[in-house]
Amino acid sequence: MSIRIVRLGSPRAPGEGPRLGTVRHPPRGVPKSAFAAQDWYDVWYPNLAPSAETVRQALDARTPADWARFEKTYRKEMGTPENSRTLDVFAALSRHAHFSMGCYCEDESRCHRSVLRALLRERGADITGDPS
């Protein structure tokens, strides 16, 4: 059993399980009824997305120091009691079920999902696959 961290909208891997969209907004121009069929996500879970201000910080990051500031800010947001408990739940579920989580960004290394992957690993989550 495991979590797969994915780019939303990419083809699903065999046995991937349900997909959670950890994004602030649904995909533009896609009817809600087509989200799962088009491999976006099965469940929208914006609770694990960075705040709008933090997303802006990531988009504006030009240097490793800028990215480190974004990562610190996002980690702080995920450190709130409700987000921390959510991460704990998903880490525990990863040892008993297959599912995936993701974002739209093309490059995981410049996306909050790279930090989300690290946060889940730090909680002992079973994570499958290399960064995409």
> How many beta-strand elements?
5
Contiguous helical run count: 4
| Overall pLDDT confidence | 95
Q: Uncertain segments of ≥5 residues (pLDDT<50)?
A: none
Strand order of the largest sheet: 3-2-4-1-5
Give the SSE string: EEEHHHEHE
Please estimate the helix content.
25-40%
Measured by DSSP, the beta-strand proportion falls in 5-15%
Strand count, sense and barrel status of the largest sheet are:
5 strands, parallel
Helix and strand composition category: alpha/beta
How would you describe the shape? globular
Q: Give the N-terminus to C-terminus distance in angstroms.
A: 20 Å
Rg computed from alpha carbons, rounded to a whole number of angstroms: 14 Å
Description:
The chain is an alpha/beta fold and 132 residues long. It has a domain at 3-49 and 85-128. 36% of the residues lie in helices and 13% in strands. A five-stranded parallel beta sheet has the order 3-2-4-1-5, with helices on one face. The two termini are 20 Å apart. The model has no long low-confidence stretch (mean pLDDT 95).
